[in-house]
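Changelog note: in this version the structure field was regenerated for every chain. One regenerated record is shown below for reference.
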Amino acid sequence: MAVKFGFMPHSNFTKIDNNVARIQELSDASVRYYTFIAGLMNGKTVTDEYVAKALGWSTSKVKRSRTPLGKYDLVLMETIHRGLHYLYVGSTEIGASMVKKHAILDEKQIDTLSLEELSKSQKKGK
């Protein structure tokens, strides 16, 4: 079988790790959840209700579908405070825990750079 693609608009397609679909222990719903989440813009704020509505599921199905992905380090949910979570999305090559680690490092670098820029601007102002 030869697979050929015609014109495919980028706004409707998601590039995901094909190895996720090959993990036999994951349900089709978990793979579908992963595909949907992987297609969201980085930093987008969503709720389980949003995902449920988009996929035509209940919120409990969203939670059940997300849970097995954590076992393979494909998603990692971190609670910031009640009702606010970060969801880190990884792949079979770079796990969600590594994505979290790099996100934290990036935030620290941004904070450090911001402090340095502030310091420079204050010195110039004197």
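Spot check on this record: The chain has one domain: 14-125. The chain is about 50% helix and 10% strand.
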